[in-house]
Design brief:
The protein is α/β, with parallel strands linked by helices and 352 residues long. 64% of the residues lie in helices and 9% in strands. It folds into two domains: 34-307, Rossmann fold, CATH 3.40.50; 308-351. It is globular and about 85 Å long. Keywords: Repeat.
Length: 352
């Protein structure tokens, strides 16, 4: 009887062990399956994100090419090359520009006579703003140079095309960076084996928001219609600006948009509409003090700066001093001759 009971106990014990092993094995299989399923889910999710980033990036790139906007960067770089380091500080360090850049002032008009280096000063302003905004997210920035010499840079449509393209290019750079980041994450996930399981935090890594759905729809719709009419472009600009926490728009030489054919009138009405619809937009405009522009600016601006003769002459003399030291023939002149040259130039300069 004792032997029978022992045999029964042994069988019972072995049965429990077998059952336990089966449960452990089942648990391991279930855990492995769950990990494999989670890994596959991560791979599917990252693929969707990669495809979305690629689609946004390519759509923006195609739209920029379709817009074929006049190039503002060439004029900017050529103008900025003419500036003398240390000049223009009277404006850049001035209270009105500082208030416009960092405080409540929204619309600043900088005016002066022909030849007083407004365009060069504007290029310095653009560089200053660019440095100020470097690394900051959610802020739009674009600039434009109107030109007497280039009919492609005189109209409201030209300004819209250029401004939209610049804002889109900034978004394209962001989308391209995110696309490349997501591609690298996808490569990491796809290289993992089933036994590795899911990546612990790959989908938690921060990814900038790429949801620009309203802009995205308008871009495709405008391209589908192949329309670049200002009304179509206004919708796109409106959506782009609405995606920003704030935006800085700089326009040089408004007076170089001709009055003929209502070109300048259309520009001014369009600028006012942009300002009225977007309270977070700041605008800096340079021009000569022409009567129609003065009337327009008196209604639009909350800050006006006139370029006066003295600060411009001071900048000119700074440039002259630098050139005299830079060139061997001039630097070798005696001090009396140098002073005569400076006095003559100062008298003739008259802020130009």
């Amino acid at each position: 009887m004792a032997l029978a009971e022992s045999s029964t106990s042994t069988q019972y014990f072995q049965g429990n062990v077998a059952s336990g092993n089966a449960r452990v094995q089942y648990g391991n299989v279930h855990h492995h399956y769950a990990e494999r399923t989670e890994l596959e889910q991560q791979q599917r999710t990252i693929k969707i994100r990669v495809d979305r980033a690629r689609d946004v990036r390519d759509t923006i790139n195609d739209t920029i090419n379709w817009l074929a906007a006049p190039d503002a960067s060439f004029t900017h770089h050529e103008s900025y090359k003419k500036h003398e380091p240390g000049t223009g500080r009277w404006f850049l360090d001035g209270e009105k520009f500082s208030s416009w850049l960092t405080a409540a002032s929204r619309i600043l008009w900088l005016h002066g006579k022909a030849g007083c280096c407004k365009t060069t000063l504007c290029s310095m302003v653009i560089e200053h703003i660019s440095r100020h905004l470097s690394g900051k997210q959610g802020i739009g920035f674009a600039y434009f140079y109107f030109s007497f010499r280039d009919v492609a840079k005189q109209s409201y449509q030209a300004w819209l095309l250029s401004t939209i393209s610049q804002l889109l290019f900034a978004t394209w750079k962001k989308a391209d960076g995110i696309f490349k980041l997501l591609e690298s994450r996808a490569a990491i996930l796809n290289s993992r084996q089933e036994d590795d399981g899911p990546h612990p935090d790959i989908l938690d890594w921060p990814v900038d928001k790429l949801d620009i759905a309203p802009v995205y729809d308008d871009l495709r719709a405008a391209r589908a219609r192949n329309h670049k009419h200002p009304k179509d472009l206004e919708f796109i600009l409106h959506d782009l600006l609405s995606c920003k926490e704030s935006a800085y728009l700089v326009l040089d030489g408004l007076d170089e948009s001709p009055e003929t054919g209502d070109l300048r009138k259309d520009v001014m009405e369009g600028l006012k509409k942009t300002v009225d619809e977007h309270e977070h937009v700041k605008m800096l405009i340079t021009s000569r003090q022409e009567s129609d522009i003065e009337v327009f600016m008196s209604q639009l601006c909350d800050s006006i700066v006139a370029i006066e003769v003295k600060p411009v002459n001071d900048d000119i003399m700074r440039y002259v001093n630098t050139e005299m030291e830079r060139h061997q023939k001039l630097s070798s002149l005696d001090q009396s001759t140098k002073n005569d040259i400076k006095c003559t130039l100062a008298e003739k300069a008259d802020g130009m």
